[in-house]
Request: fold
Amino acid sequence: MKNFLYIIIPFFIAVGFFSVSCLTVYADFDLARWEYLAPIEGGPGVGSGYVTLDIPSGLFSYLKSDLSDLRVVNDDGEVPYVAAVERETQSILNIPARMFNLSTVPGDNTSFMVDLGQSGLFHNFVTVRTSSENFRRMAEVEGSDDASSWRMLNSKGQIFDYTVRDISPVSVEYLSVPYPESTFRYLLVTIRDNGESPLKIHGAEVRREVKLEAREISYTPSMEISENVKDRATEVLLDLGARGIPHRKAQLEISYANFSRAVAVFESDDKKEWRSLGHAYIFSIDTPKFYGKQLEFTYSESNKQYLKFAILNRDDRPLSVSKVFLTGVMRRILFSFNPSKKYYLYAGNSNARRPQYDIEAISQYVDSASLFKVIAGATEKNLDFEPIKPPLSERSPYVLPVTLGFVVLVLAALLLRIFLKVKGSAT
Reply:
């Protein structure tokens, strides 16, 4: 019995060591674990200190979608950085306002006045609240301090609603009219009906919107167009050439006039499984009653390689799309740079975790607008890269079941031996 234990105990120790070795955790940054790199070029005049770098679009295809495997490395090793998405700086202040004198000239226009209560308040948007559906109207906005003499603020505003209530419902609207920042107490809004039924207006809102647009980068993806007879739609399939590139806005070039269509937007990484990003609305109208077009729209940001626009034609003839431009918000990083050292961006480690550096807290006190900019060169293969070998249990899937089976047999034999010994002692 004692000799048997001398055999079985080391065996279990070996099995435990084998199990632990299968779960080996690698250090977070190991040069051999990152598959791709791109040199960082400082350029003339770039001194020591914090710098910013716009992540090149070609690098996104090698990065994880959350950028958690992006690393900056120089001669001394890993360099702390903070990543940021260029976003709009936007502030919106809603201003209390009272709508009055709502009236209609049948077949011509609908108008109303808005009183902000006092002069001197800055404002630049008025929004019409209406329950009407499926319309397009030109809208004018005028301003006044005495509700007597008026100054034109915007003579070419456009508001619209596109609503379809069927098996595949669609609802897209834009009901705001912008104008230059003003301090007038009164606004006069005139909606051109041009022979159509007046809108059912039940209110108006005024606001001041201050926006600093984010820096964006545009792409011209390759395009394939096909007709989906079953869904009565023109499908525009776009290929950005690589996954990971962020995009959120599209602009279509269509020469055909006088159309009004909904657009279903989808994303995919394999052109097989498609996920909906919602609906948009495009139109181009040139008639005596209305002139205007809307061929640009936004959608939920995507970083998939493929995008599909399904233009819902219904019973109208298909549209001819000649070109599509996609736009995405710039990504950048901030880090400390020394021009006397060589710097590289590393990417391509599926096991990497998101790094945590002190610079994330410090960066809020750095004026990034005044910093030098550095650039990344072409992405290349890391010659020191060594793929991680999967654990023995994955390379040989039968090892673990066979080992466990052997352990069970040994334990069964041990228990049987103990049982027979106890039974023999009892008799």
Summary: The CA atoms of residues 93 and 208 lie 5 Å apart. The chain has four domains: 31-81+338-381, 90-212, 216-329, 389-420.
